[in-house]
Amino acid sequence: MNRLLLVFHYMLLGILPCTAFQRVDLPVPALQQALTDCNTDTGKTRLTLLLAEAFVGRPGIAPADWDSTMMYLKLATLYNIRIKHPRWEARSSFIYSKAYREKGMREKGMAAILHAHHTLLKLDYPQDLGDVLMEQANYYNIDIEAELKERISLYGKAAQQYHHAGDMPDEAYALKMLGDCYHCWGKYDEALLNLNKTLALYKRMGRKDIQGLYDLLGTIATGKGDYSLGLTYGLQALRIAEEQRDTSMQLCTIYNRLSITLYELGDCKQAIDCAMKSLNIATRYNDTPSIVVISTNFVPIYLRNNEPEKALDLMHKVISLYRDPVSKDQIWISTNMVKCYVQMKQYDKAATFIPGLLALSAKMSKYNYYQTSIYGTLVRYYLNTAQYEKAVKYCALQADVCQRIGQINAMSLNYLCWYRADSALGNYAAAIKHFKAYKVVNDSMFKVSKAGEIARLQVQYDFDQKDKDITLKQQNIELLTREGLLQRAALKEAMLTRNIIIFGAFMLLLLLILSYNRYQLKQESNRKLQVKQDEIFQQNQSLQQLIVTQDKLLEEKEWLVKEIHHRVRNNLQIVMSLLNTQAAYLNDADALEAISESRYRMQAISLIHQKLYLPGNMALIDMQTYIREHTAYLNDDFGGLQHIYFDLDIAPVKLDVSQAVPVALILNEALTNAIKYAFRQQDNGTVSISLQYTSHAHLLLTIADNGAGFPAGFDIAANGAMGIRLMETLSEQLEGVLHILSREGISVQVSFPQQLS
């Protein structure tokens, strides 16, 4: 056994039995040789499991791979009989599950993975448990909403286990799968949250092959109506794919989604070009489902060009290929068929698809992303068939869904249809209201459209410029080739003469240098040594003087800084006293409320400066201590808050004063609002305060209550008070993002990067 194999052999024999199951990327022969040389039951168990996993991990498990997998799993069971370690038993069940699932034996595979899950819950192997949760998620269908929720739950738990184990690559993969599932569910905000975490981890790891992640981010941006950002992400994905020389089905997906974005921007020519490139890749891989999905991207282009017959012919071809479509594919097949027949005014044929769409809608949750496609199609059908009451009903449902998931484009079209239905029914007040709403949404879409048009023109310019550069380079190459042929013969002769002269001159120069260098060496060495000694002596003297001076200056600086903070706090206390005095002479409730709010803000800043002049605390604020003290101050000052419980979950975070002040003011605004408005006097409630790291040097501040929340129909952007505007401004100062959510109470979330000294 050579030394490398010997090192690997000892590494696998259980020298580190408490670590997570190691992923060893070695060929099967090396593992088999290590198994032959192994002489411990623990080492043999681990090696046989690695061999079983190597065979089951091969694409499309062949009969020979299946037999090898089963053989090594049985050997692992025999070796584990003597050591009886539950971890190896769980790992064996995990591999059994992968093998059974590959063979289509779902029930056996599910039983095996549940056994592994149950076993690992009693142990402390987070990486193994993460692997089991990821495998268990494969048994749930993303096209069935209830199973999709279970899959999302498993991916989330797996990401937590990988994070606990310190396994950054697998944590990033789990978060990416989690974001993709949220995208399939139509929950774009949750998808973006997890995908941005994935992107941050990939950048920390230095990953280059992240075209799939950018492609997914672009798809979500397009789905939310931000076509400019969608185009930016799509082109970034395409650029990385070209750099990585990616010609797989991943590139097919990138071109397909880029085609959708370009269509939404109104560039049908570029959209068709990207769709054709995507279709060519799918055809090369003979991937029928992808061919079907890509083909349907041509349908809206035909409909926009008023060519419904072409669109209908294409849909008939798709249906002939797609014998057993899943629910979401049934939705886009049925909606496209209805659109084709409605545009052709063949309403009786369109009507045959309406019951199916209603049945599919009833199976999904109210705010499922695919409801927007169904409701929009139903509205179009009922408007064209003069069934205005039904059109109004589904316009209301469509507006509710679009507002919840942020579908601006669909919302604009829906308001216009709603206006037409109300007008046809003679309900002119509602018609005017919905037409105004249409204009408001359409104006916001116009801004996005203009940004998208600019991005599209930039892309077109880049494409044209690239073509010009390629043509110019080709011309230069041809010219240089001709010149090179003419000069090559002359250069050969000149090179020979030049080389002879250079060689002779070099040898003569070398002799002169060697002779002179021997003489100068000793003289130079002595001179440098003396100079160095003088410099060292002078530097030592200067350094001693600088150290003494620096110590004095540091002491003076520290005293001055503490004195400044002390005086700032005293001045703030004086201002607070003046505000209290002024309040005693006021009878106006709004003025008293404004003075009260200003006093709480002053106290928030004053407490920070108090912390800064305490001994040993010159630059950073301990947020754990600060938040607890400020919460206690508000609790005492308001009085009568026995019905409110404050739940604090604060990480050991220390912030610079430039960040601590905005965080303190945001915390003050959110807490005072929760104390004053969230609960009635007789109701008990909870206010949760959390400050946690979401990634390295990135923090999330959350202040949430379980109170009454915003009134129905309350628009934060239109009706936000000064406190909300102040929190938005302070969030921008932190270079962070503010989210105010009203679900089972009010939740204020600020995500911002921590400034590191």
Protein model, in words:
By secondary structure, the chain is α+β, with helices and mostly antiparallel strands. Among the domains are: 1-139, Serine Threonine Protein Phosphatase 5, Tetratricopeptide repeat, CATH 1.25.40; 208-288, Alpha Horseshoe (Serine Threonine Protein Phosphatase 5, Tetratricopeptide repeat); 623-753, Histidine kinase-like ATPase, C-terminal domain (Heat Shock Protein 90, 2-Layer Sandwich). The protein is 75% helix and 6% strand. The protein has 29 helices and seven strands. The chain has helices at residues 3-12, 28-37, 41-56, 63-83, 86-102, 106-120, 126-137, 145-165, 168-185, 188-205, 211-223, 227-243, 249-264, 268-284, 288-295, 298-304, 308-321, 327-343, 347-351, 354-363, 371-384, 388-405, 408-425, 428-584, 589-612, 623-638, 657-678, 716-719, 722-733; strands at residues 620-622, 644-650, 654-656, 685-695, 698-705, 737-742, 746-753. The strands form two sheets. A five-stranded mixed β-sheet has the order 2-4-5-7-6. The longest helix has 157 residues, at 428-584. The radius of gyration is 35 Å and the shape is globular. The two termini are 51 Å apart. Mean pLDDT is 80; it is low at 1-20.
